[in-house]
Amino acid sequence: MTKQCHILGAPVQTGASQPGCLMGPAALRTAGLGDTIASLGWQVTDLGDLAQIADPVADHQNGAVHNLAETVGWTRILTEAACQAARDSDLPVFLGGDHSMAAGTVAGLARYAAEQDRPLFVLWLDAHPDLHTPDSTTSGHLHGTPVAYFTGQQGFDDFPALSHAVDPKNICMMGIRSVDPAEGKRINEIGVAVHDMRAIDEHGIINPLRAFLNRVVEANGMLHVSFDVDFLDPSIAPAVGTTVPGGATFREAHLIMEMLHDSGRVTSLDLVELNPFLDERGRTAKLLTDLAASLFGRKVLDRKTKSF
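RE: above sequence
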Protein backbone atom coordinates (compact mmCIF):
# COMPACT_ATOMS: atom_id res chain seq x y z
CA MET A 1 0.00 0.00 0.00
CA THR A 2 1.13 3.57 -0.71
CA LYS A 3 2.31 5.32 2.41
CA GLN A 4 0.43 8.44 3.50
CA CYS A 5 2.09 11.77 4.29
CA HIS A 6 0.02 14.60 5.72
CA ILE A 7 1.46 18.11 5.61
CA LEU A 8 0.25 20.66 8.15
CA GLY A 9 1.32 24.28 8.33
CA ALA A 10 1.80 26.12 11.62
CA PRO A 11 2.57 29.78 10.79
CA VAL A 12 3.86 30.50 14.30
CA GLN A 13 6.08 33.50 14.90
CA THR A 14 4.99 34.60 18.37
CA GLY A 15 7.84 32.65 19.95
CA ALA A 16 10.58 34.09 17.76
CA SER A 17 12.86 37.07 18.17
CA GLN A 18 11.91 38.67 14.84
CA PRO A 19 8.96 38.41 12.45
CA GLY A 20 8.90 36.39 9.26
CA CYS A 21 8.49 32.75 10.33
CA LEU A 22 4.78 32.87 9.61
CA MET A 23 5.75 32.80 5.91
CA GLY A 24 7.70 29.57 6.36
CA PRO A 25 4.93 27.11 5.40
CA ALA A 26 4.15 29.04 2.22
CA ALA A 27 7.83 29.14 1.25
CA LEU A 28 8.22 25.38 1.69
CA ARG A 29 5.15 24.76 -0.41
CA THR A 30 6.46 27.14 -3.08
CA ALA A 31 9.75 25.24 -3.04
CA GLY A 32 7.77 22.14 -4.00
CA LEU A 33 7.90 20.13 -0.78
CA GLY A 34 4.62 18.29 -1.36
CA ASP A 35 5.36 17.41 -4.98
CA THR A 36 8.87 16.30 -4.06
CA ILE A 37 7.61 13.88 -1.42
CA ALA A 38 4.92 12.61 -3.81
CA SER A 39 7.57 11.94 -6.47
CA LEU A 40 9.19 9.51 -4.03
CA GLY A 41 6.13 7.28 -3.96
CA TRP A 42 4.13 8.80 -1.11
CA GLN A 43 0.50 9.88 -1.22
CA VAL A 44 0.59 13.45 0.04
CA THR A 45 -2.32 15.35 1.55
CA ASP A 46 -1.81 19.01 2.39
CA LEU A 47 -4.08 19.95 5.27
CA GLY A 48 -3.38 23.67 4.92
CA ASP A 49 -2.46 25.93 7.82
CA LEU A 50 -3.78 26.09 11.34
CA ALA A 51 -5.05 29.44 12.60
CA GLN A 52 -3.71 31.08 15.72
CA ILE A 53 -5.91 31.21 18.81
CA ALA A 54 -4.73 33.07 21.90
CA ASP A 55 -5.68 31.47 25.20
CA PRO A 56 -6.63 33.73 28.11
CA VAL A 57 -3.70 33.73 30.55
CA ALA A 58 -2.47 36.20 33.13
CA ASP A 59 0.74 38.16 32.65
CA HIS A 60 3.72 36.03 33.61
CA GLN A 61 5.75 36.88 36.69
CA ASN A 62 8.81 37.02 34.43
CA GLY A 63 8.20 40.35 32.74
CA ALA A 64 10.55 39.43 29.88
CA VAL A 65 8.15 36.80 28.49
CA HIS A 66 6.61 37.72 25.14
CA ASN A 67 3.33 36.53 23.62
CA LEU A 68 2.50 33.99 26.29
CA ALA A 69 -1.21 33.80 25.45
CA GLU A 70 -0.53 33.19 21.76
CA THR A 71 2.12 30.54 22.46
CA VAL A 72 -0.18 28.72 24.88
CA GLY A 73 -2.93 28.80 22.25
CA TRP A 74 -0.65 27.42 19.56
CA THR A 75 0.52 24.66 21.91
CA ARG A 76 -3.05 23.59 22.63
CA ILE A 77 -4.24 23.43 19.02
CA LEU A 78 -1.01 21.86 17.75
CA THR A 79 -1.17 19.11 20.38
CA GLU A 80 -4.58 18.06 19.11
CA ALA A 81 -3.71 18.51 15.44
CA ALA A 82 -0.41 16.62 15.64
CA CYS A 83 -1.98 13.69 17.44
CA GLN A 84 -4.73 13.49 14.82
CA ALA A 85 -2.28 13.82 11.92
CA ALA A 86 -0.27 10.91 13.34
CA ARG A 87 -3.44 8.81 13.58
CA ASP A 88 -4.36 9.58 9.98
CA SER A 89 -1.01 9.22 8.20
CA ASP A 90 2.23 7.28 8.24
CA LEU A 91 4.52 10.30 8.49
CA PRO A 92 3.08 13.76 9.13
CA VAL A 93 5.24 16.80 8.35
CA PHE A 94 4.70 19.99 10.33
CA LEU A 95 5.80 23.20 8.63
CA GLY A 96 6.85 26.12 10.79
CA GLY A 97 6.83 28.60 12.09
CA ASP A 98 9.24 29.12 14.97
CA HIS A 99 10.41 26.28 17.20
CA SER A 100 7.90 27.02 19.96
CA MET A 101 5.51 24.99 17.81
CA ALA A 102 7.36 21.81 18.87
CA ALA A 103 5.82 22.19 22.32
CA GLY A 104 2.54 21.24 20.67
CA THR A 105 3.69 18.87 17.93
CA VAL A 106 5.81 16.72 20.24
CA ALA A 107 3.19 16.71 22.99
CA GLY A 108 0.60 15.48 20.50
CA LEU A 109 2.92 12.86 19.06
CA ALA A 110 3.78 11.62 22.56
CA ARG A 111 0.06 11.16 23.17
CA TYR A 112 -0.29 9.17 19.95
CA ALA A 113 2.77 7.03 20.77
CA ALA A 114 1.22 6.19 24.14
CA GLU A 115 -1.97 5.13 22.34
CA GLN A 116 0.19 2.68 20.38
CA ASP A 117 1.94 1.54 23.58
CA ARG A 118 5.27 2.65 22.15
CA PRO A 119 7.82 5.16 23.46
CA LEU A 120 8.48 8.38 21.56
CA PHE A 121 12.06 9.31 20.77
CA VAL A 122 13.07 12.78 19.55
CA LEU A 123 16.05 13.73 17.38
CA TRP A 124 16.57 17.44 17.99
CA LEU A 125 18.62 19.04 15.20
CA ASP A 126 19.27 22.58 16.37
CA ALA A 127 21.92 25.08 17.40
CA HIS A 128 20.06 25.50 20.71
CA PRO A 129 18.74 22.99 23.27
CA ASP A 130 15.55 25.04 23.86
CA LEU A 131 15.47 23.97 27.50
CA HIS A 132 14.48 27.25 29.11
CA THR A 133 11.25 27.58 31.05
CA PRO A 134 9.16 30.77 31.15
CA ASP A 135 10.77 31.41 34.53
CA SER A 136 14.38 31.06 33.37
CA THR A 137 14.30 32.75 29.95
CA THR A 138 16.01 36.12 29.89
CA SER A 139 15.16 36.96 26.28
CA GLY A 140 11.49 36.13 26.82
CA HIS A 141 11.24 34.46 23.40
CA LEU A 142 9.38 31.22 23.94
CA HIS A 143 10.92 29.37 21.00
CA GLY A 144 13.61 28.61 23.56
CA THR A 145 11.28 26.55 25.78
CA PRO A 146 9.63 23.61 23.94
CA VAL A 147 11.95 20.82 25.12
CA ALA A 148 11.50 21.84 28.74
CA TYR A 149 7.73 21.78 28.21
CA PHE A 150 7.36 18.41 26.51
CA THR A 151 9.73 16.72 28.96
CA GLY A 152 7.50 17.84 31.82
CA GLN A 153 9.73 20.40 33.55
CA GLN A 154 8.22 22.77 36.09
CA GLY A 155 7.20 26.32 35.21
CA PHE A 156 4.54 25.71 32.56
CA ASP A 157 1.42 26.14 34.69
CA ASP A 158 -0.23 28.33 32.04
CA PHE A 159 0.28 25.71 29.32
CA PRO A 160 -1.98 22.73 28.55
CA ALA A 161 -1.38 19.85 30.93
CA LEU A 162 0.73 17.15 29.31
CA SER A 163 -0.99 13.83 28.89
CA HIS A 164 2.37 12.12 28.29
CA ALA A 165 5.80 13.68 28.79
CA VAL A 166 8.78 12.59 26.71
CA ASP A 167 11.49 10.82 28.69
CA PRO A 168 14.57 13.12 28.48
CA LYS A 169 16.73 10.04 28.00
CA ASN A 170 14.83 9.40 24.74
CA ILE A 171 16.09 12.68 23.27
CA CYS A 172 19.23 13.07 21.16
CA MET A 173 20.40 16.59 20.35
CA MET A 174 22.85 17.19 17.52
CA GLY A 175 24.45 20.40 16.28
CA ILE A 176 24.18 22.27 19.58
CA ARG A 177 26.50 25.26 19.81
CA SER A 178 24.67 27.95 21.82
CA VAL A 179 23.67 27.03 25.38
CA ASP A 180 22.67 29.40 28.19
CA PRO A 181 23.80 28.56 31.76
CA ALA A 182 20.29 27.63 32.92
CA GLU A 183 19.95 25.27 29.96
CA GLY A 184 23.34 23.71 30.58
CA LYS A 185 22.39 22.98 34.17
CA ARG A 186 19.09 21.43 33.08
CA ILE A 187 20.83 19.23 30.49
CA ASN A 188 22.94 17.72 33.25
CA GLU A 189 20.00 17.36 35.63
CA ILE A 190 17.62 15.52 33.30
CA GLY A 191 20.08 13.53 31.22
CA VAL A 192 19.49 14.65 27.64
CA ALA A 193 22.15 13.33 25.25
CA VAL A 194 23.84 16.29 23.55
CA HIS A 195 26.30 16.03 20.68
CA ASP A 196 27.51 19.56 20.14
CA MET A 197 29.46 20.72 17.11
CA ARG A 198 32.80 20.09 18.82
CA ALA A 199 31.82 16.46 19.41
CA ILE A 200 30.70 16.18 15.79
CA ASP A 201 33.96 17.73 14.59
CA GLU A 202 35.96 15.27 16.69
CA HIS A 203 33.96 12.08 16.19
CA GLY A 204 31.62 12.66 13.24
CA ILE A 205 27.88 12.09 13.13
CA ILE A 206 27.64 8.46 12.09
CA ASN A 207 28.42 6.67 15.35
CA PRO A 208 26.28 8.78 17.73
CA LEU A 209 23.34 8.79 15.32
CA ARG A 210 23.63 5.06 14.69
CA ALA A 211 23.74 4.37 18.44
CA PHE A 212 20.62 6.48 18.97
CA LEU A 213 18.76 4.79 16.13
CA ASN A 214 19.69 1.39 17.55
CA ARG A 215 18.08 2.42 20.83
CA VAL A 216 14.90 3.38 18.97
CA VAL A 217 14.84 0.00 17.24
CA GLU A 218 15.47 -1.95 20.45
CA ALA A 219 12.59 -0.15 22.19
CA ASN A 220 10.27 -0.45 19.18
CA GLY A 221 10.01 3.30 19.46
CA MET A 222 8.51 5.97 17.29
CA LEU A 223 10.92 8.68 16.15
CA HIS A 224 10.14 12.36 15.70
CA VAL A 225 12.71 14.56 13.97
CA SER A 226 12.60 18.25 14.81
CA PHE A 227 14.75 20.14 12.30
CA ASP A 228 15.60 23.79 12.99
CA VAL A 229 17.13 25.79 10.14
CA ASP A 230 19.86 27.04 12.47
CA PHE A 231 21.15 23.47 12.78
CA LEU A 232 22.71 24.25 9.40
CA ASP A 233 25.61 26.60 8.89
CA PRO A 234 24.26 30.06 7.96
CA SER A 235 26.52 30.11 4.89
CA ILE A 236 24.23 27.53 3.27
CA ALA A 237 20.97 28.39 5.10
CA PRO A 238 20.71 32.14 5.76
CA ALA A 239 16.92 32.27 6.26
CA VAL A 240 16.84 32.13 10.05
CA GLY A 241 16.67 34.80 12.71
CA THR A 242 18.98 32.98 15.14
CA THR A 243 22.12 32.41 13.08
CA VAL A 244 25.00 30.72 14.90
CA PRO A 245 28.23 30.16 12.94
CA GLY A 246 29.73 26.70 12.71
CA GLY A 247 26.64 24.67 11.89
CA ALA A 248 26.20 21.44 9.97
CA THR A 249 27.41 21.30 6.39
CA PHE A 250 25.39 20.30 3.34
CA ARG A 251 27.03 16.87 3.33
CA GLU A 252 26.52 16.25 7.05
CA ALA A 253 22.86 17.23 6.90
CA HIS A 254 22.13 14.98 3.93
CA LEU A 255 23.98 12.08 5.54
CA ILE A 256 21.81 12.42 8.65
CA MET A 257 18.64 12.44 6.59
CA GLU A 258 19.72 9.45 4.51
CA MET A 259 20.60 7.48 7.65
CA LEU A 260 17.20 8.35 9.09
CA HIS A 261 15.50 7.04 5.97
CA ASP A 262 17.57 3.87 6.02
CA SER A 263 16.55 3.23 9.63
CA GLY A 264 12.86 3.09 8.69
CA ARG A 265 12.01 4.51 12.11
CA VAL A 266 11.03 8.11 11.44
CA THR A 267 7.32 8.63 12.10
CA SER A 268 7.04 12.45 12.01
CA LEU A 269 8.98 15.58 11.08
CA ASP A 270 9.12 19.27 12.04
CA LEU A 271 10.69 21.83 9.69
CA VAL A 272 10.99 25.02 11.71
CA GLU A 273 12.44 28.53 11.96
CA LEU A 274 12.45 29.18 8.21
CA ASN A 275 12.19 32.94 7.79
CA PRO A 276 11.78 33.66 4.05
CA PHE A 277 12.20 37.40 4.68
CA LEU A 278 15.87 36.64 5.41
CA ASP A 279 16.42 34.19 2.55
CA GLU A 280 18.31 34.57 -0.71
CA ARG A 281 16.06 33.74 -3.69
CA GLY A 282 14.44 30.86 -1.83
CA ARG A 283 17.77 29.17 -1.24
CA THR A 284 17.04 27.89 2.27
CA ALA A 285 13.53 26.70 1.46
CA LYS A 286 14.92 24.70 -1.48
CA LEU A 287 17.61 23.19 0.74
CA LEU A 288 15.07 22.13 3.37
CA THR A 289 12.97 20.56 0.62
CA ASP A 290 15.99 18.61 -0.63
CA LEU A 291 16.85 17.48 2.89
CA ALA A 292 13.29 16.31 3.44
CA ALA A 293 13.56 14.41 0.16
CA SER A 294 16.60 12.56 1.50
CA LEU A 295 14.63 11.59 4.60
CA PHE A 296 11.78 10.34 2.40
CA GLY A 297 14.08 8.19 0.28
CA ARG A 298 15.87 10.20 -2.38
CA LYS A 299 19.39 8.88 -2.97
CA VAL A 300 22.54 10.72 -4.06
CA LEU A 301 22.28 9.27 -7.57
CA ASP A 302 18.76 10.66 -7.90
CA ARG A 303 19.81 14.28 -7.46
CA LYS A 304 19.97 16.64 -10.39
CA THR A 305 22.34 19.55 -10.78
CA LYS A 306 20.72 22.84 -9.75
CA SER A 307 21.63 26.47 -10.18
CA PHE A 308 20.91 29.08 -7.50
